[in-house]
Write a structure and sequence with these properties.
heterodimer; A: about 425 residues; alpha+beta; Enterococcus faecalis V583 fold; v583 fold; 2 domains; globular; B: about 55 residues; two-stranded parallel sheet; about 45% helix; about 20% strand
Chain lengths: ~425, ~55
């Protein structure tokens, strides 16, 4: 086979692995219990690797909040000093099979969603098929370390997550593929619009909590939390996407992207045939709409692991089927349809199950090919929330952004070098 | 007898425009029917990268 045939065959295999994923929620557990390599005095974060001193304001603010939440420092100043002198180990979520929205910080006591991709296991040669994602909220993950912001993390740790865990264990896990399939047909795009998926998830967990005989004092506040949280499913969707994308990593000759993420300073991608190497470029500016009191002058750069949803064909890749999200991120329904059609030009497959009614029930475009991106000049599109450029603020807006072509250019050159082409 | 080129100019023109839209818009403003094809040079015009792409796809 010549190299072109090798690439086509490898990309078919990458697409096959990404489209047969069977994500199941198997646990909601403290990170220290389940995330490989999670240690005491350690926080994992969104995006490619980055040093404290190079982090943007929102990422630094979120880390300060995470240190306070763990009780490793008493004041924000103390936390900042600890982080500055390297007393807290910082590593990317992606290096630990994990993902997190915006700053994406995860520390040992924080409960995470545990999603297992049941399509893979020891018999397939891909045994470690679990992925993890932290709680989704609108404050600390954006860099807000106020007492009110940290209270949301504590309630998740002490009440909501343990209650959901009991109910989940009672029902023996929850298959998420039917929820995702249905939600895509109900107007979700599974990145910033989760109205349908969150409701479907709340329905399932409400019944599970009753069946598990959860005491009313725990059940009622947890029920209120899940039924009033429009984005609760984002954490599940991200863990699903990570569990779906990971088995496609490390296929020799494949030019398919297996991760896109941002740390607020840099945007990074991984490519299947190039293993775990990151190809980075400066994080782009998000073209967005702002909440009252904020403007583009306040905005930080693109941030978060949530572009793992676009990596598997959700988010802005399927935005044509989710016009409701446009009131948050801007744009017209016609533009949204055009984005989804455009993404077909840079991907290698259409998903056989996850479909978009607005585009004639076409499968979502999946498997970004770095060759196609560079050939067409079409960069993957992402819909995303916006954090403040300074620490200490909650969410300030949302919008659309393109992945920097520079990442794909670097990956293509590295691919040519690795496979002796060029 | 008219040459094919003169015959072409003598009949209504339908143009196909590749790339930059301003050429299409100029023709459209003169009442010419234009089919616009979105196109950019591979690898944004980077010859070395375009050569690499040619070997990979």
């Amino acid at each position: 086979m010549d190299i072109k045939q090798e690439i086509e065959k490898a990309n078919e295999e990458a697409a096959r692995r990404m489209t047969i994923g069977e994500p199941v929620l198997v646990d909601i557990a403290p990170a220290s219990e389940v995330i490989p390599g999670m240690e005491d005095r350690m926080i994992t974060h969104a995006g490619p690797p980055i040093r404290w001193q190079d982090m943007c304001g929102a990422m630094q603010g979120a880390l300060i909040g995470q240190v306070l939440y763990e009780g490793w420092a008493r004041t924000p100043d103390e936390a900042r000093v600890m982080l500055e002198r390297g007393a807290i180990r910082l590593e990317p979520n992606h290096h630990h099979q994990a993902v997190g929205p915006m700053a994406g910080t995860i520390s040992p006591s924080a409960p995470v969603w545990v999603v297992e991709n049941k399509a893979f296991g020891p018999l397939t040669g891909i045994s470690d098929n679990r992925a993890f994602c932290r709680q989704v909220e609108g404050n600390q993950q954006f860099g807000d370390y106020s007492e009110q912001a940290l209270q949301g993390l504590r309630l998740w740790r002490d009440l909501w997550a343990p209650t959901l865990r009991k109910a989940l264990r009672h029902i023996g896990g929850l298959n998420l593929k039917p929820i995702i399939t249905q939600a895509l047909q109900m107007g979700d795009e599974l990145h910033n619009r989760h109205s349908a998926s969150s409701s479907l998830f709340a329905n399932a967990m409400a019944v599970a909590m009753v069946e598990a005989d959860i005491p009313k004092a725990e059940m009622l506040p947890t029920l209120k939390y899940v039924t009033n949280h429009n984005l609760i499913f984002l954490g599940l969707a991200m863990a699903c996407a990570k569990a779906i994308a990971d088995p496609a990593m490390g296929i020799e000759y494949s030019t398919v992207v297996t991760a896109m993420c941002r740390n607020g300073t840099e945007f990074g991608i991984r490519v299947s045939g190039l293993g775990e190497e990151w190809f980075t470029a400066p994080a782009p500016v998000v073209d967005g709409l702002y909440l009252p009191g904020y403007s583009a002058a306040d905005a930080g750069l693109d941030m978060g692991d949530s572009a793992i949803t676009e990596t598997v064909g959700w988010g802005a890749f399927t935005i044509g089927g989710a016009p409701g999200i446009l009131s948050l991120v801007g744009g017209t329904p016609e533009e949204a349809l055009a984005y989804s059609r455009e993404m077909k030009k840079i991907t290698v497959a259409a998903h056989p199950t996850y479909r978009m009614p607005a585009l004639g029930f076409a499968g979502v475009p999946i498997g970004i090919d770095v060759r196609k991106v560079m050939q067409t000049g079409i960069a993957p599109i992402i819909d995303t929330a916006i954090a403040h450029r300074e620490p200490g603020h909650p969410i300030i807006g949302a919008g659309l952004v393109r992945a920097p072509l520079e990442c794909f250019k670097k990956a293509l050159i590295a691919f040519g070098r690795k496979y002796n082409v060029g | 007898m008219l040459t094919p080129f003169v015959e072409l100019l003598d009949s209504p023109i339908v143009a196909i425009n590749l790339g930059l839209k301003m050429f299409a818009e100029s023709l459209e403003s003169q009442g010419v029917e234009v089919c616009q094809v979105d196109w950019v040079p591979p690898a944004g015009g980077d010859e070395e990268l375009a050569d690499l792409l040619d070997k990979l796809m």
